[in-house]
Amino acid sequence: MFHSSVLVCICVLFLTVTAWARARHPQFRSIPTTVKTSENDTVLLPCYVDNLGNNIVRWWRDDKLLADSSDPNITTPARVTMFPNNTLQVEELRPEDTGEYMCQVVRPAPWNPIQQMHAIEVLYPPSVVPIPESGQVIVELGDEVKMACEASGVPHPIITWVTKGEELQLLDNRPKLRFIADNRTMAGTYECIASNGVGEPARAVIELRILYPPEVSTDRNWVHASPGIRAEISCMVTADPEAEVQWLKDSQLLEPRQHISTYHYEDKFRLLFRRVQASDFGHYMCRATNRIGTNQQTIQLSGVANPAVFKKDYKIASENNYTLIWEVDSYSPIIEYNLLFRKYHEGTRPGPWVKLIIPADGGYVPGQLHSKSYTLTGLDSSSTYEVTLLSRNVFGWSRPSSVLRFSTAGEGVEDNELVVEVETHEENKLLPAEVAAILRDQNCASMSHTNIIGILLILIMLLATH
């Protein structure tokens, strides 16, 4: 019982001493404060202390003493004032005033100082500088691109990138970009935008230039002409750095001629024939070269006719006959046609072409548009056929027309006339492989209309026996 009474007394005494100590020692009544404000404003940082007594109050910024209550003659920095209530005033704020400020109460030994931290954030609009500072990045196609922007501002700005009017979809708001220039269309203006909610966003522009070998294209790789007329062939060249363009004929550098001239505007290069001569016909190469590489495009100037164009007519199909109508654009009269047809089954390999030689209509044809019609007879009903046509004038055979796919009339057959592109052979881009093989057979005799019908009847009989 005695020991319990002693323990209670000790606890009461401890609490009494602690309360007395608290009442006698200084304590902060203010709370830590962070002030966010704009430039040129004035800020008051509180330092309210209970039981301050004769203790000293000092204000610090980093390791620099700003004010000391024990020395009113201390030199305080410009724009900084400590009031009698220990409040610190900073006026005409500047960006460099951003930081932490410490109010410190210095107590006599053996007591350590007590301190309270405050902060000032001087908000100011963002600014941004491109990296490289020149604002230009030059790489070759396939190289790695590195660009960045250095932003400042309070709060710290968020970075976004925009190119060709669209924001780049990045995983984060990064100040640096790294990617492979695997496509020349990636060249252009890249804009770095820094924003922090204060004032207007800041922008920096970086121009990306991607050096690449020449790219050569042409609207037409075959141009129809005739002696005595005006003609032109052209190619489009894009390159960086700028390419040197040369014209070659039949793999030889084109020599200057009085009736041929070259000129260009922007990226289009032209070869003009004021009055075509027969010796001008041939293959011309537009070749472009820069320090990155070389590229070229071949264009043929020819007197042969343009490919025939089939005309559609819904009244020309029957069960066993089909009438074809076509037009050919040719400066020179058409001498004859080669009509090639074969049966078509979707999903199976088509059979060989059957060739018909059709004489052109005699007599004078005004203009350069030649029309012709021809009826295929002895066809199977409810069947689909393919047909292509070649025209010959004094300069030779034309390229084949597009393939016309048509169906004869019959039960369950709907009209499905369709024009499809003809397949070409790598070694002879002017003709389909199978068509070229037929035309190379010089031993094939010309067929009259009577012979054609007879052969078709024989074919029909042979098919019927199977």
What is this entry, summarized?
The chain has 466 residues and is mainly beta. It is built from three helices and 34 strands.
* Percent helix: 10-25%
Q: Mean pLDDT, nearest integer?
A: 84
The CATH topology assignment of the largest domain is Immunoglobulin-like
Shape call: elongated
Label the structural class: mainly beta
Annotation keywords:
elongated; mainly beta; seven-stranded mixed β-sheet; 466 residues; Immunoglobulin-like; 4 domains; 34 strands
Structure description:
The chain is mainly beta. It has four domains: 73 residues, Immunoglobulin-like (Sandwich); 89 residues, Sandwich (Immunoglobulin-like); 85 residues, Immunoglobulin-like (Sandwich), CATH 2.60.40; 157 residues, Immunoglobulin-like, CATH 2.60.40.10. The protein is built from three helices and 34 strands. Strands 11, 13, 14, 16, 17, 19, 22 and 23 form an eight-stranded mixed β-sheet that branches. Strands 2, 5, 6, 9, 10, 12 and 15 form a seven-stranded mixed β-sheet that branches. It is elongated. The protein starts with a helix and ends with a helix.
